[in-house]
Each structure stands twice: as structure tokens, then as C-alpha cells.
Target: AhpD family alkylhydroperoxidase
Amino acid sequence: METRVNILKTTPEAYKAMMALEKFIASTSLTPTHKELIKIRASQINGCAYCINMHTRDARKLGETEQRIYLLNAWRETKLYTEEEQAILALTEEVTLIQNHVSKETYDNAKRLFDEEYLAAIIMMITTINAWNRIAISTEMPLD
Model:
């Protein structure tokens, strides 16, 4: 397998900018569970093995159950996720698959459940993990 560009080594300023997004996310009131659900679901959609591996491990360390992790890609078919988590997962899917746009229904549901600051943090978390997925996939970051 060929070695691909290492963003951290080649363009540390770009990596530093991504870490600034992470620092912002850490400063928000997003719950750890909400963060990890977003990270795992977006990574599943994007097919990012590196990020799925990392964030399922992180979620388990936070106390997330195996069952909820395993069923995350079929969240609409279970009662394991709260109304708030369902709204976050729907928004995560639509932002990740942005070519189809974010529906008024999905956005309005999230807006009903979260204040503007929390909703902005959700969108920034979704945007950030999608950027990380693209970096990891395009550079073929190896699993730990």
C-alpha cells in the first residue's frame, strides 16, 4: 500500500485549524453522548473506518452501550434513542448528505428541541466530523 500525505506533518497549519474547530466544539454545551453519536453516524455514512473505530471506542469509554452503537445505523427502527438524539441523528444524516439539502421538517424539529446556541454547536460538530472523515479517507489514515 502506498503512503499518502500526512496532513499533520506536511501542512501543520491546516491541522492546527482543524484542531481549533475541535477546541470550539469542546467549549460548547454539547453533551459527550451527542458528540459521539454525531461522530459515529457521520463516519458510518462516509465509510470512514478510522473515525468509526476511534469514536465507537470513545463512546464505550463514556458508557455508551454496545447495543446503541450497533443499532446506530438503524436508529429509526428502534426506541433506543431519545427524541433529542433522533433529531440530532436526522440532522447529522441530512448535513452529511448535503446534496439533498436539510429539510424544513428536520431543521424545524431540531429548532423546536434545542436553543439556537446548541443547534449551532450541533451543526458545527457535524461539519467538523465530516471534514475529519474526508481527511482520514483521502489520506488512508491507518487504524490504531
